[in-house]
Amino acid sequence: MRMAASLLVLGALTAVVAFALDLAGLSSATLFAALLVGLAVALARPGKVTFPRGSFVSAQALLGVTLGAYLEPDALQAVGGEWLPVALVSAGTLVASMLVGLVLERRTELDRPTAQLGMIAGGASGIVGMSDELGADDRLVAFMQYLRVLVTVLLTPLLAAAWGGGDGGGGPSEAILASPTDWLVTAAVAPTAALAARRLGVPAGTLMGPMVVAGALTLAGVDFVVPPVVRELAFALIGLQVGLRFTTDTVRQMGRLLGPVLVGVFVLLIACFGLAVVLHLLTGISLRDAFLATTPGGIYAVLAVAFSSGGNITFIIAVQSLRVIVSVVLAPLAVRRLARRGRPAA
């Protein structure tokens, strides 16, 4: 009974903090809020609050379905004529992230999987959700990912204001209420695809299996979304469980890493701006919209800026969404391949 009461209090605190962060325009507000609440509880009452292992696995599977639903036919149509530049930019972002991660590994105490996953631009919630399965420290990965998101969210409106108007274009519609079909598809795909992927030995299969199946259904014309309440619950469970694993030593380590990670984030921002210039030159889209399409993090903040400034919403969300998919799909393969080579000599 006491544990149930503690979990209810954690849920209420997470909802309040998430609401405040959402008003401030921070992307993935629920996961970030849960991470902060879990961290505070872990430091104030170490080891007193825990979650069943099954809740984390379930949250990963639900997160996979959520990410898979990004792969909509409209998004592919929006970049259909420009698929090669978009593919090059998406791959370039992943390569730049991995290179920054390798440098960070050499210059800090981070192990290779943690450094790599912490610096991957795109799909912060998905990366955090799979990091423990890939042998990384998910606490430090979460710290690095959300530091990148925070810096990007703060800088994007300022940098976007330096350019003029966009190309125009309407934004995608978003379902507000979930239908019975949404509940049924989510309930069917999440457990079955996660179990199948784990049995097949797919890297980060708990997340990847549902993501691939949900993406295939979406491309096949099955119109569904993960019910918002379920999606936010999954974000909260992942954030809380990662946050609750923090210790005083981990917080001290984060303090030591703050400077190097910030440098890495700014290097990544510069690299993504270079990719935006490439996208602008190859497609003719405005430099401002190319910048918004390639910004390394904070997709919801990017879309808010694009909406308010008349940007090409369809193109921006298509490139951002496809980059999320590319990052989350290829990250496990790339990280495991690099991890096998071991830590390079200093």
Automatic annotation (TrEMBL):
What highest taxon heads this organism's lineage? Bacteria
Q: Does the keyword Transmembrane helix apply?
A: yes
Q: Which UniProt keywords apply?
A: Membrane, Transmembrane, Transmembrane helix
Answer yes or no on keyword Phosphoprotein: no
What is the organism lineage in this UniProt record? Bacteria, Bacillati, Actinomycetota, Thermoleophilia, Solirubrobacterales
Return the NCBIfam families for the record.
Gneg_AbrB_dup
Pfam families documented for this protein: AbrB
Protein name in UniProt: AbrB family transcriptional regulator
Which residue windows are transmembrane per the record?
30-47, 54-71, 83-104, 146-163, 183-200, 207-226, 261-283, 290-307, 313-335
